[in-house]
Write a structure and sequence with these properties.
By secondary structure, the protein is of the alpha/beta class. The chain contains 9 helices and 9 strands. The chain folds into 2 domains: 150 residues, SPOUT methyltransferase, trefoil knot domain (Alpha/beta knot), CATH 3.40.1280.10; 71 residues, Orthogonal Bundle (Trp Operon Repressor, Chain A). Helix content is 33%, strand content 18%. The protein has a 5-stranded parallel β-sheet with strand order 2-1-6-5-7, sandwiched between helices. α4 crosses α6 and α8 crosses α9. The two termini are 17 Å apart. Bound molecules: adenine. Adenine binds next to β5.
Length: 241
């Protein structure tokens, strides 16, 4: 059964382009995964379609109300579904977590907004909270798109060509090597000789060396992490089944 993803957001049109374009759009078209965007306001019951309200205890901003979110999740959830809330105070998205999500059958991605959401939502109808990085977006809708984009590459067929995508391997935690295409000479800059040599073994050696060099310069923390645990053992709570 292909993975089905329901996205709950107050800004559904933010995802129009994302779902229509790109490799992901092709995956959706060919039925390798299905994604449905829902407007949370469809589950409001008052004339003004009120989805948020002022926080108890005071403070700036508005808080997403529990009623429409509970109603939406209760209507959409299927047995075994994983209900995820996108929030900067969630566990960080990692390749291991993205791969694990790609193996699920049904995900509900809830986008929060501005100052946050009523805590009772998080306590009762959310299984996992995910952050895409240590910065605060105006709402979680783009974060939901990032999660989908990151997991899509682990669904066989979505990327077109089948690649080895194991997230635990040593090499997957290195940054990428530099790529070149024609022309071999451009404005006085030439492509490294080894890449033109046709010598496969030498090319592989060169690429690995560049990856280690780049990782050491930009993300030395990744080299340290390699010595410890595989990626999939970090950063997520077990799913509530
Ligand atoms: N919502 C707002 N900022 C976010 C972030 N960094 N990750 C996930 N959801 C968010």
């Amino acid at each position: 059964m292909p993975l089905h993803i329901d996205i709950l957001t107050l800004f559904p049109r933010m995802l129009d382009g994302f779902l229509a374009e790109s490799i992901l759009g092709k995956g959706v078209e060919s039925g390798l995964l299905s994604v449905k965007v829902h407007n949370l306001r469809d589950w409001t019951t008052d004339k003004h379609k009120t989805a948020d309200d002022r926080p108890f205890g005071g403070g700036a901003g508005m808080v997403l109300k529990p009623e429409p979110v509970f109603a939406a999740i209760e209507q959409l959830q299927k047995p075994g579904c994983r209900r995820i809330y996108l929030t900067p105070d969630g566990v960080p998205l990692s390749p291991g977590l993205a791969e694990e999500l790609s193996h699920q059958q049904h995900l509900i991605l809830l986008s929060g907004h501005y100052e946050g959401i009523d805590q009772r939502i998080r306590d009762q109808v959310i299984d996992q909270e995910i952050s895409i990085g240590d910065y605060v977006l105006t709402n979680g809708t783009l974060a939901a798109a990032v999660v989908i984009d990151a997991l899509a590459r682990f669904i066989p067929g979505v990327l077109g060509e089948e690649k080895s995508l194991t997230s635990e391997s040593f090499t997957s935690k290195l940054l990428d090597f530099p790529q070149y295409t024609r022309p071999a000479e451009f404005r006085g800059m030439s492509v490294p000789e080894v890449l033109l040599s046709g010598h496969h073994g030498e090319i592989e050696k060169w690429r690995l060396a560049r990856r280690i060099e780049k990782t050491r310069q930009v993300r030395p923390d990744l080299l340290e992490k390699n010595q410890h645990e595989p990626d999939h053992q970090r950063n997520h709570r077990p799913s509530a089944q």
